[in-house]
Model the fold of this input.
Amino acid sequence: MRVLICVSGMPYSRSTVRFGALLGQLGLSETTLLMVVDEETEDEAALDMLERAAQLLHFPPVAKRVSHGPPLAEILAAVESDEYDMLLDWLPYRGLDS
Done:
């Protein structure tokens, strides 16, 4: 199973990455961590964040990918182009009145 884990920043993405780690421990996944940023000048910080997220997974190999543009469009493009079986992302709960 190919899994794409979207990392939007810590500590917010920590629970998402840890759930991905459970899949990896079961031997069920080939994992890619994706972070979408606005500009290429943010690449270094994004790669650092992805490296910290990869350490939470506790299993190699983990592909790390930085993309540029609107987050939803970039995530969907990644899912479609690389044919992932599962997408893990953290979405804040805003309640029914938001």
Remarks:
- The chain has three helices and four strands.
- Residues 93-98 have pLDDT under 50 and may be disordered.
